Amino acid sequence: MERNGxxxxxxxxxxxxxxxxxLFSLFGIxxxxxxxxKIKNPHNLMKRGVIFGHRDFDxxxxxLERKEKxxxxxxxxxxxxxxxxxxxLMDQIIYYQNMGIDIILAIADIEAYAVRRMERKELxxxxxxxxxxNALALGLQxxxxxxxxxxxxxxxxxxxxxxxSQKVTAAEFSAIYGEITPAKVTAVLHQAADILHPMLxxxxxxxxxxxxxxxxxxxxLRFTRDIADRFSGELGLRRPASTYHRFMTGLDGGKMSSxxxxxxxxxxxxxEVSASKLMKALTGGRATVExxxxxxxxxxxxxVYEMYxxxxxxxxxxxxxxxxxxxxxxxxxGEDKKMAVEKMLKWxxxxxxxxxxxxxxxxxxxxxxxx
Length: 371
Ligand code: SF4
Description:
The protein is α/β, with parallel strands linked by helices. The chain contains 16 helices and nine strands.
């Protein structure tokens, strides 16, 4: 876990980031907006500042321009049900796949077993029914796609993870991850192998690999970039690029997490459950109707507005309309929540139909570990 002033980044815990712009000066992340001139059709999450930072993503854009092959690598730790915060990452993956980028999805089953102490059968079920099936239902295509369980990988991947252990120190581990346990060391070395293995000839020999992550995962990225430098001569590894997105706030104002069911709406929640969760969500509304009319609401502090911004309102005009009506006190939270619920239910109903079909497809796309 890293602390730097008021910023705490913990890849396995709760990260506190009061001001995302501080990540630029404190950790050397670059502002994503500087790349806009190079991006023809930016995703809404880019235009709306949700994807706010990057490391070396300009090199990825240049490689795409030159028609060189590029891989997106991301990992899912199958430790719980998929919620709208996860959907944001799925949406990005699908956007990049549609741009012609190869997609490699690592199911971090070794990490889930070692760090979260999940039961093996259960984590395999979650990977298939929650992560892979939802990704398919959201629009992930089977072309240019490879999905694997870490524990099912073959020799060169494991050789890589073992070789990495030679050039990292216990001090580095503890500076980044706090307390060192064998489980954490195992998880970190496999995660570095996940990100860097596509660069080996055996796995495609990609020169350009990038990882879209939440800001809390940056310590992993910096660690992996250092490892790539140390193995650039011996194995020809290169630094992976990365993009960073903001977290969705939980419906109760805390962290959105699968382990706290009331903080998140899961994509498989029964419709009445999801509606009730959104109706109870914390808003940026004032204490009384009179104050709301006089002062206006605070959409920046509102989890209902976040649902609009991240998921429910693709058209910028509609989003701005809600924003200004809220700010001017023309909209009350009760009526706004009802509108948001209506949009969400319409979307969820469609999605859940696709999800049922996708569950049958999920296990055909990945080799399932025998234990
Ligand atoms: S009116 Fe809507 S956007 Fe504004 S604070 Fe209330 S729920 Fe949030």
